């Protein structure tokens, strides 16, 4: 589980309590929606005092983003032997995550609210987006070590490439699963991955 937002000093934090609070936050969000969700609702569901929440999180925005981030931190990129297989595996994991009601509701809620709240948008970027780019970095490093992709000497260019790959994968899967409500099944994932691989390798290597 990721480390929640820095809170006020006090008694040592309990990982079990943090996990219960984040789970309660997701449950409350599914039932109540963003506008009706309060710190009091979460504290009651988690069986902790409201002051406990405020020692850990400054407010609802921080709490909900951390509750969403915890789900995404469970995504992994096991070595499947090829870049294509690695991409297919992580996309299927991502799709399975988005099928979970608490993940769908929480993600859509924070994204919708972030269109009106710049601070929340920045927090989503740092706690979720930037953290999950680790998967792209790892996948590219493996592919480069296998000789599937060329190394990039320019660190700035490598960073921009990582950003673009993340945006393409995350944006496409979220749009299909949550906006279009179309299945992200193995056939679709294989087709999407083939298209992505063409872009990564270029027509000369296809």
What is the residue-mean pLDDT, rounded to a whole number? 90
- The chain-level structural class is mainly alpha
Give the full name of the CATH homologous superfamily of the largest domain. Tetracycline Repressor, domain 2
Q: What's the story with the biggest beta sheet?
A: none
Count of all domains: 2
* End-to-end C-alpha gap: 39 Å
Q: Could you name the ranges where pLDDT drops below 50 across 5 or more consecutive residues?
A: 6-10
Please provide the count of β strands. Answer: 0
**H/I helix tally:** 9
Radius of gyration: 19 Å
Please sum up the structure shown:
The protein is mainly α and 206 residues long. 71% of the residues lie in helices and 0% in strands.
Characterise this structure:
This protein has 206 residues and is mainly alpha-helical. The chain has 2 domains: 15-59, Homeodomain-like (Arc Repressor Mutant, subunit A); 69-201, Orthogonal Bundle (Tetracycline Repressor, domain 2). The protein has 9 helices and no strands. The radius of gyration is 19 Å and the shape is elongated. The protein starts with 14 loop residues before the first helix and ends in a 5-residue tail after the last helix. Residues 6-10 have low confidence and may be disordered.
Blueprint (SSEs and pairs):
Blueprint (H helix, E strand, L loop, with lengths): L14 H18 L6 H8 L3 H7 L3 H13 L10 H16 L2 H14 L3 H29 L8 H25 L6 H16 L5
Helix pairs in contact: 1-2, 1-4, 1-6, 4-6, 4-7, 5-7, 5-8, 5-9, 6-7, 7-8
Relevant terms:
9 helices; Arc Repressor Mutant, subunit A; 2 domains; Tetracycline Repressor, domain 2; 0% strand; 71% helix; 206 residues; mainly alpha
């Amino acid at each position: 589980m990721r480390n929640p937002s820095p809170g006020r000093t006090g008694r040592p934090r309990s990982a079990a309590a943090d996990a219960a609070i984040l789970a309660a936050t997701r449950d409350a969000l599914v039932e109540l929606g963003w506008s009706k969700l309060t710190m009091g609702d979460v504290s009651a569901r988690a069986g902790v005092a409201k002051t406990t929440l405020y020692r850990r999180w400054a407010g609802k925005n921080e709490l909900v983003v951390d509750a969403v981030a915890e789900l995404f931190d469970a995504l992994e990129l096991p070595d499947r032997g090829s870049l294509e297989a690695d991409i297919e595996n992580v996309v299927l994991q991502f799709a399975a995550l988005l099928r979970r009601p608490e993940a769908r509701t929480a993600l859509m809620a924070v994204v919708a609210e972030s269109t009106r709240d710049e601070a929340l948008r920045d927090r989503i970027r740092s706690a979720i987006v930037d953290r999950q780019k680790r998967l792209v970095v790892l996948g590219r490093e493996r592919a480069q070590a296998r000789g599937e992709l060329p190394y990039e000497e320019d660190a700035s260019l490598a960073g921009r490439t990582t950003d673009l790959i993340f945006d393409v994968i995350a944006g496409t899967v979220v749009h299909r699963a949550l906006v279009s409500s179309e299945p992200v099944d193995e056939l679709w994932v294989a087709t999407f991955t083939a298209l992505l691989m063409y872009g990564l390798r270029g027509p000369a290597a296809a």
